[in-house]
Specification:
- The chain has 349 residues and is an alpha/beta fold.
- The protein folds into two domains: 219 residues, DHBP synthase, CATH 3.90.870; 89 residues, no CATH class.
- It contains nine helices and 14 strands.
- It has a ten-stranded mixed sheet with strand order 7-1-2-6-3-5-4-8-9-10, with helices on both faces. A four-stranded parallel sheet has the order 11-14-12-13, covered by helices on one side.
- A hairpin with a 6-residue loop joins strand 8 and strand 9.
- It starts with a helix and ends in a 5-residue tail after the last helix.
- Bound molecules: adenosine monophosphate (AMP) and magnesium ion (MG).
- Adenosine monophosphate (AMP) binds next to strand 5 and strand 9.
């Protein structure tokens, strides 16, 4: 059941006391904390097991709040906010001094976004300040797209054991929160389902650091000039990256993920495994099939739930994902999904 004003008030109380609150957005669920409180932000890094060199996105209620965390809000930023906010576009600009270094991983820029979810917009309004909000999952794993995913990950992951200070209490039942210290606002399933497009306006020309459902083409149209795109998958984790979060392995379930061409050429179909595919290929498959929609937006919405399903309930230790696009290179409309699939299948350390 979706949270209401009472849950928002409780969430604000916790945030004001330096606590952590999981909140819904249209992309994925975020792990929220007061962006101007370095201790609260440090708690988020600990909970996620997130490397200190991976900066956090600061969530704002709109351009007015964004102005408080950037050094200078530019006409380009205004145009983009007009066109895409609230929505899945994150804008990187030089940071304001008041933003703690831990938020930006010591860097000179800050990433800001206004999420398109009524509950979290209300939370930001009532809290009346910016909130960090990385995906509410252990670093590197599949992002949560329902409140149940947040609860399941938090209660299952040993990475979270002992990181929280506040004691568990039965009064907390209303939040159905399995881990003390993290209050979960349930806003239903996420509409977009994959993380926001990250665009750097601190680069010239402007640069897409992470593809998302707002495309480089749409951004270029609004800016009236070309936008550079980072390659869909970096060649090596050791190579310098434009955005510190662009690890080769990310968004990854526990089981091995293999990308396969249509018709699953080269895959031993007798192995116990799950196949995630847009085209039903065999009348009586030997494997478990998770059928996906062939529209990119619908596919993105269901992707992380499908990976979780395969991880938790599929046979064997292998997940084969049939590439939903034709040909070697994903066309523009599949680029964000392709990025997540390449990283889910990326080499692990
Ligand atoms: P997540 O919150 O897990 O969805 O990841 C946030 C993404 O935004 C990561 O890819 C970060 O590297 C990127 N990001 C956050 N802040 C900055 C920044 N100041 N400059 C460049 N990329 C950033
Ligand atoms: Mg994440």
């Amino acid at each position: 059941m979706d949270a209401g004003p009472e849950q928002i008030a409780e969430a604000v109380r916790r945030l004001s006391a330096g606590g952590v609150v999981a909140f819904p957005t249209e992309t994925v669920y975020g792990l929220g904390a007061d962006a101007l409180n370095p201790d609260a932000v440090a708690h988020v890094f600990r909970l996620k097991g997130r490397p200190a060199n991976n900066p956090l996105i600061v969530h704002v209620s709109g351009p007015a709040m964004a102005r408080e965390v950037v050094a200078q809000w530019t006409p380009d930023a205004d145009r983009l906010a007009d066109a895409f906010w609230p929505g899945p576009l994150t804008i990187v600009l030089p940071k304001a001094d008041r933003v703690p270094d831990i938020v930006t991983a010591g860097g000179p820029t800050v990433a800001v976004r206004c999420p398109d979810h009524p509950l979290t917009l209300a939370l930001l309004e009532v809290f009346n300040g910016p909130l960090v909000g990385p995906s509410a999952n252990p670093s590197g794993f599949v992002s949560p797209t329902t409140a149940d995913h947040v609860r399941a990950v938090f209660s299952q992951s040993r990475a979270f054991q002992g990181s929280d200070r506040s004691p568990s209490s039965s009064e907390d039942q209303a939040s159905r929160d399995p881990k003390p210290g993290v209050y979960i606002l349930d806003g239903g399933p996420c509409r977009v389902g994959i993380e926001s497009t990250v665009l750097s306006l601190a680069d010239n020309p402007a640069r897409v650091l992470r593809p998302g459902m707002v495309s480089a083409e749409e951004i270029a149209r609004v800016l009236g000039r070309p936008v550079v795109e980072a390659p869909p998958s970096p060649a090596s984790d050791a190579a310098p990256r434009a955005s510190p979060g662009l690890m080769r392995s990310h968004y990854a379930p526990r089981k091995r993920v293999v990308l396969a061409p249509p018709e699953l050429t080269g895959i031993d179909l007798q192995r116990p495994m799950t196949v995630i595919a847009t085209r039903p290929m065999h009348a009586a498959p030997t494997y478990r099939l998770i059928a996906m929609p062939d529209d990119p937006a619908d596919y993105a919405r269901g992707l992380y739930a499908a990976l979780r399903d395969a991880d938790e309930h599929g046979p064997g230790d292998l997940i084969v994902v049939e590439t939903p696009w034709e040909g070697d290179e994903p066309p523009a409309r599949w680029r964000a999904v392709a990025d997540r699939l390449h990283r889910a299948a990326g080499p692990r350390d």
